[in-house]
Amino acid sequence: MTLYFAIVSFVVGSVFGSFINCFAWRITHHESILKGRSHCAVCGHTLGALDLVPIFSWLFLRGKCRYCGEKISPRYMLTELLLGAAFLVSFLCFGFRWEAPRLMALSVALLGLSLVDLEIQEIPDGFIIYGIVLWAVMLPLLPEPVKALWQGLLSGFLIGGGVLLISLVMDKVLKKESLGGGDVKLLFMVSLYMSPLAALFNLVLACAVGLLFVAALKNEKIPFGPSISLASFATVLVGERIATWYLGLF
Ligand SMILES: [Zn+2]
């Protein structure tokens, strides 16, 4: 039974991965999100059902378009694999509790905004609003909704406000923009999902992941959104357990 739902989680995740990848691509290329069928980015040929099976299509076609033979970026397969894994891990960690679909729905937005941020160094407000609405809608379904409400709000305003203040001071000192406004809004949104201690842990983790990316890719211009997203997924997944364990040490 668990195995069945684990497989279903992965498959559903990879389908959403395929969808959000296309969605992000259309945002960055200013194409209508609702109109038009999926098509090859090079030749424009409309894709058939066989071309749209997550992961497998890319593998069977060996990363090439069936119609023009042009290479298809591994980004398609990687995003599908990534979100499939995110859904699978969410299910394995939370099982049949509401936290599982909550984290799955959040991870769709985190992946989408990361893809957009990587391409145009911008985080559209729509992703932030989606995250805030999702948080509010899922609140009553949590085991302790009142606690989750005030803790989330406290985390959001502490982390979001704190980072905004620091970045404003840094801007004055360095005389250039240190942190994008989108990053501050994103930190506010993801912190809603966390207790204050976990949110602080998340901020440190996001910076560590960001530094790791900069060091590994030897590129200082890497957007911060993907690092915040990656850290936040991990924190919502296991952050509370680590925070509880940490507090237990004292
Ligand atoms: Zn093509």
Short description:
The protein has 250 residues and is mainly α. It has nine helices and no strands.
Secondary-structure topology with pairs:
Layout: H1 2-28, H2 56-60, H3 75-94, H4 99-120, H5 125-138, H6 145-174, H7 181-191, H8 196-217, H9 225-248
Helix pairs in contact: 1-3, 1-4, 3-4, 4-5, 4-9, 5-7, 6-7, 6-8, 7-9, 8-9
Bound molecules: zinc ion.
What does this structure look like?
The protein has nine helices and no strands. With 250 residues, it is an all-alpha fold. The termini are far apart. Bound molecules: zinc ion. The site of zinc ion has 8 residues, from loops.
Keywords:
single chain, 250 residues, mainly alpha, 2 domains, 9 helices, 70% helix, globular, binds zinc ion
> What would the principal axes of the Cα set say about the shape?
globular
Kindly give the count of domains: 2
How confident is the prediction overall: mean pLDDT? 90
Bound molecules: zinc ion
User: In percent, how helical is the residue content?
Assistant: over 70%
- Roughly what fraction of the amino acids lie in strands? under 5%
Helix count, DSSP H or I runs of 4 or more residues? 9
